[in-house]
Amino acid sequence: MRVSLVGIELIAIEARIVVAGVDTYLKYAEAVGLTTGAQAA
User: Fold this and answer.
1) Which helix (H) or strand (E) element contains residue 9?
2) What residue spans define the domains of the chain?
């Protein structure tokens, strides 16, 4: 039981890291102007 809870916590932490990374990338891409090209495609 304890092992599965630790696994769930690790997955939650990884999910937060991924979301933070995607959010940072989108902000960076918008600043550089990459999102306009992606929307056109």
Assistant:
1) helix 2-32
2) 15-41
